[in-house]
Predict the structure.
Amino acid sequence: MKMKKLSNYFVYAICVIAVAFSAGAFIKVNANTNSMPAAQPVDLTYAAEKALPAVVHIKYLQNSKVQTVEMEADPFDFFDPFGFFGNPGNGGKQKRKIQTPKREGSGSGVIISADGYIVTNNHVVDGADELTVTLDDKREFSARIVGTDKMTDLALIKIDGKNLPAITIGDSNNLKVGEWVLAVGNPFNLNSTVTAGIVSAKARSIGANDVESFIQTDAAINAGNSGGALVNTKGELVGINAMLVSQTGSYAGYGFAIPTTIMNKVVADIKQYGTVQRALIGVSGTDVNRYFDMQKAEGKEVDLGTMEGAYINEVQDGGAGAEAGLQKGDVITGIDGKKITKMAELQEYLANKRPGDKVTITFLRDKKSKTATLTLKNQQGNTGIVKNADLDVLGGNFREINNSEKQQLNISTGLVVMKVNNGALKDAGISRGFIIQKVNDEPMKTIDDLQKAVKEASTSKDPVLYIQGIYPTGKKAYFAVPLQNE
């Protein structure tokens, strides 16, 4: 699996820290003897020995598939009975079947429990038909995906094993800028590779994920390191390596890891609920210093009373922030007594909360400090538990359309509703025989497609299936099917 990449175009205010270190087993840290305690050697070999057995190599396989695609017909192709002249009512379009190539890739993962739970990146396993995990001792296991979270780019997978070498999970909050760390993974399929560096920055936001508060490091991270471990000198896991920033695709000095403060909550929610319970204030914005830069670029001068904090640019109607009286232009400077200097710090703190939790916000309005206590909500605007819905919620049985139905109705894909029981379909007025062609604008080719659409919609901000289809008579219809979480 290729490392997820970002152009420097998307990176704001990334500082470059030059670090020189010896290639020996021990590295001495220079110190100012007048103001600091005497430096002690940092033993990186101990951290490597502790971490290496827990970091695995993940091989990804997506099988070749046959897909039907629509393309412009060639009006001069007289010999294609299904082309332009063969189907003049389709506006010069023709449908053809293509076979996608088999896709293979690789990445890394970290064993977090002796019974086989492994954390990796979502982009390492997304869309995989088969996952093979190879341990440091060369044992191989087939893995299944327990759950994924695209918003943080994390995934939890599982292998069947006992007494596996699980890593000790540390607290990323305790990391300090300048502290030594190791990146452990499998770059370029080179198994069990360790690189050393320091923490260059914390709570870094680079616009890669919806929820992010990256640890920035200059430990070399390359393609294949995705999902691997970032560990401290004790060999404790402090982050999951996620991406690099480079114009070439190879390491150029910057690497980013997802802190364990975010990882722990994602793993716990996936295990307990099947999906992440995301707690939201219901505001959007940016770092105060970025807001100043944007205003300065437009020739405007502003005075917010601070140069630190999270500037609120928009307040969502009906959200927790709106109910607590937050307004556009407010600057969040603290939450539950914790100082907030930038938006990523606020996101990291909220990533550990669940809908229904109460928090106290400190903010500036017209340069005057105010406080507000609010109840966090989920992405659907309430405080309930968001669950992954299954096909059972629809209350129906389905099958793929056959060749006769394709020819008769001049369609290429669809799912026939074979039976309607009590459930969302019946409530929406969908009857037996109706052919579902699209759900939320996605074509329905297989029952797995429908299952995926139900799952994604059930955890979204708008838990509704917008279904387009056709009856056996040729009559087309459109339904909105709400998915209610109990």
